[in-house]
């Protein structure tokens, strides 16, 4: 048996169904290709090509285990012969290796989270694989600049905002706020951090949880907490907030969006949800207790570098009280720079049309 030929490959099982239903034109065939190898091909033709590919990779200096693994994925592509490879895991190093070594397809990566200097520095210090995008659908101009500053390449950068947010907005046109604050949980979020950044991340997250709880109790604010779904997470927050908060389980990819849209102000530490909600004309706030811009480098009115609790309380109450038109003047330039979101020209339409154009260029 040999790999089945299709027009497109969706690389890695991250939002596979969403990509298939929203951005892949129906007239083209597509299949999932996971980075975790689940199928072993023993066809003699495949094995011959595989051995040759492994040898070539070893000659470039690759370690044996790495060459065996990456060569297998590369061989699968050679037999499927896709015209387009698309992924929602834009920071996958295996994906970027394939971009470099498979030249018979166009590669499309769709950004699915904030990409910060600490992540890029980990990549540079731990591997010789560099981020080299072919076509990169990113949140905004900020991300194009960040990649360039770190020495990574993007052949075709296209800032279009968040695909996942756009799909949610298509189904939820209007949600009336019922909470003052939505706290986006970062409980248990330490991957891919390494010490001492893990300790710093946990410290910032825990301090913010405690300060929001203190504020909610002192000012009798209605708080909803968008949970991540980590073990013991709800018990941790109930110990801090008790009955001063509503807890929203992470039942699906849209639960956190609903909690955010149901609130006047979204608060978190180092969360892509802040950037998505900013683009959705919501008030947002990143609170940083260590002022480490490697972890969250976004500047402007969405950021509060912590001074003391009194300053924090005053800042949050002021954000809750001001009219959105006043707040919008403070963040208007950053909204577009951080996330180029347009409801009249949504990401799914842009990407689908682009894929169709690419496919037709191959046919011609």
Summarize the structure.
The protein is an alpha/beta fold.
What does it look like?
The protein has 364 residues and is α/β, with parallel strands linked by helices. The protein contains 14 helices and 12 strands. The strands form 2 sheets. Strands 2-1-3-4-5-6 form a 6-stranded parallel β-sheet, sandwiched between helices. Strands 9-8-7-10-11-12 form a 6-stranded parallel β-sheet, sandwiched between helices. Strand 5, helix 6 and strand 6 form a beta-alpha-beta unit. Helix 2 (44-59) packs across helix 3 (64-80). The chain is elongated, with a radius of gyration of 22 Å.
The proportion of residues in beta strands is 15-25%
Largest sheet: 6 strands, parallel
The structure class reads alpha/beta
Percent range of helical residues:
40-55%
Taking Cα atoms only, what radius of gyration do you get, to the nearest Å?
A: 22 Å
Q: Span from first to last CA?
A: 30 Å
Q: Give the beta-strand count.
A: 12
Backbone shape? elongated
By oligomeric state, this entry counts as single chain
The whole-number mean of residue pLDDT values reads 92
Name the helix and strand elements from N-terminus to C-terminus, one letter apiece.
Answer: EHEHHEHEHEHEHEHEHEHEHEEHHH
- Please report the number of helical segments: 14
Give the helices and strands, then pairings.
Layout: E1 8-11, H1 16-22, E2 30-33, H2 44-59, H3 64-80, E3 84-87, H4 93-101, E4 106-110, H5 117-126, E5 132-138, H6 141-149, E6 153-159, H7 163-171, E7 179-184, H8 197-219, E8 223-226, H9 233-241, E9 245-248, H10 255-261, E10 263-268, H11 272-279, E11 283-288, E12 303-305, H12 309-321, H13 324-338, H14 347-363
Helix pairs in contact: 2-3
């Amino acid at each position: 048996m040999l790999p089945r030929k299709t027009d497109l490959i969706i690389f890695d099982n991250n939002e596979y169904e969403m990509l298939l239903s929203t951005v892949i034109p129906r007239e083209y065939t597509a299949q999932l290709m996971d980075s975790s190898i689940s199928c072993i091909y023993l066809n003699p033709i495949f094995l011959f090509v595989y051995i040759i590919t492994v040898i070539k990779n070893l000659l470039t200096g690759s370690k044996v285990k790495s060459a065996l693994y990456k060569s297998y994925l590369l061989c699968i592509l050679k037999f499927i012969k896709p015209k387009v490879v698309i992924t929602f895991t834009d920071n996958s190093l295996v994906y970027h290796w394939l971009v470099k070594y498979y030249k018979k397809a166009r590669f499309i990566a769709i950004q699915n989270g904030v990409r910060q200097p600490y992540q890029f520095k980990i990549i540079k210090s731990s591997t010789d694989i560099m981020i080299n995008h072919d076509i990169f659908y990113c949140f905004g101009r900020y991300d194009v600049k960040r990649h360039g500053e770190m020495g990574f390449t993007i052949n075709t950068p296209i800032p279009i905002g968040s695909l996942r947010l756009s799909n949610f907005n298509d189904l939820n046109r209007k949600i009336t706020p019922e909470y003052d604050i939505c706290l986006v949980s970062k409980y248990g979020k330490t991957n891919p951090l390494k010490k001492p950044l893990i300790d710093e991340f946990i410290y910032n997250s825990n301090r913010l949880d405690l300060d929001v709880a203190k504020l909610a109790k002192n000012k009798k604010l209605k708080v909803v907490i968008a949970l991540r779904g980590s073990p013991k997470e709800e018990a941790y927050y109930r110990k801090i907030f008790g009955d001063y908060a509503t807890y929203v389980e992470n039942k699906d990819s849209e639960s956190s969006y609903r909690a955010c849209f149901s609130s006047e102000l979204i608060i978190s530490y180092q969360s892509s949800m802040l950037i998505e909600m900013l683009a959705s004309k919501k008030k947002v706030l990143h609170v940083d207790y260590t002022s480490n811009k490697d972890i969250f480098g976004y500047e402007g009115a969405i950021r509060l570098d912590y001074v003391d609790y009194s300053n924090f309380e005053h800042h949050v109450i002021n954000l809750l009280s001001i009219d959105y038109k006043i707040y919008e003047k403070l963040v208007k330039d950053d909204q577009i720079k951080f996330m180029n979101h347009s409801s009249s020209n949504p990401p799914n339409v842009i990407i689908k049309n682009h894929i169709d154009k690419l496919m037709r260029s191959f046919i011609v």
